[in-house]
Amino acid sequence: MAIHLYKTSTPSTRNGAVDSQVKSNTRNNLIYGQHRCGKGRNSRGIITARHRGGGHKRLYRKIDFRRNEKYIYGRIVTIEYDPNRNAYICLIHYGDGEKRYILHPRGAIIGDTIISGTEVPIKMGNALPLKGKSATLKLPSGEVRLISKNCSATVGQVGNAGVNQKSLGRAGSKCWLGKRPVVRGVVMNPVDHPHGGGEGRAPIGRKKPATPWGYPALGRRSRKRNKYSDNLILRRRSK
Fold first, then answer.
1. What pLDDT shows up at residue 134?
2. CATH value at residue 194
């Protein structure tokens, strides 16, 4: 991914750093619906997820996560931008005429071929089932889990790995993504947040920070006890 730095012509471009977006030429049979950003409200209009709302209208791209075109070679035709995720997507033309979108593997270019199946070469972009009864998977958080043998894995890494280097530069760009402003609890009134109130700039007045609903925040585990998937966790993530 190439990072584009703006010249400082306006205050909004002073700290802007965005990726040079790939143009999107979507196929009508692989997109559907006006997929709106999550507005964070339920059917009664009550806020259930804070800091969400607005955002530009989106069309959802059907992504082939199953990779069930077995033993049929496919060729990468385009690499496109997807507004519904950070990663790019690429259009695959299979030998039997099927056309599907997959997540763009890092390093793959237009013209590369991919294939999925049991006995396929271990090559970037190929999808293979797991071997044995189960496999261990280490997540980015450090947690190690057991994965069923019925799952498949794609060789390689998801592209657009430098997305964390982007800097939107202004609040309006974040609003386009459906993310609303975040207000600190310490500047609210005490009726709105446990950290609120006080004369001037005051500390929170508590031993430990709390959520807007009074529960302990910042470090306390919130996972439900005796969850059905506890026996699949071999090593818990670090705090």
1. 87
2. 4.10.950.10
* 192 and 121 share one domain: no
Answer whether residue 36 shows pLDDT above 70: no
Alpha-carbon span 100 to 92, nearest angstrom: 5
User: In whole angstroms, what is the distance from residue 96 CA to residue 76 CA?
Assistant: 14
Provide the residue range defining the domain that includes 12: 3-130+154-176
- In this structure, is residue 203 part of a structural domain? yes
Check whether 190 has a pLDDT greater than 70: yes
Residue 18 clears pLDDT 80, i.e. is over it? no
Cα–Cα distance for residue pair 3/21, rounded to 1 Å? 9
Does some domain include residue 142?
no
**Are 206 and 99 part of one and the same domain?**
no
**Domain assignment present for 138:** no
Task: List strand residue ranges (DSSP E) for 8-107, in order.
Answer: 17-19, 31-34, 59-61, 74-80, 89-94, 99-103
Which of 90, 74, 94 minimizes the C-alpha distance to 82?
90
Rounded to an integer, the average pLDDT of 12-25 is 71
Amino acid 21: pLDDT? 60
Confidence at residue 132, expressed as pLDDT on a 0 to 100 scale: 79
- Indicate the pairing of strand 127-129 with strand 152-154: antiparallel
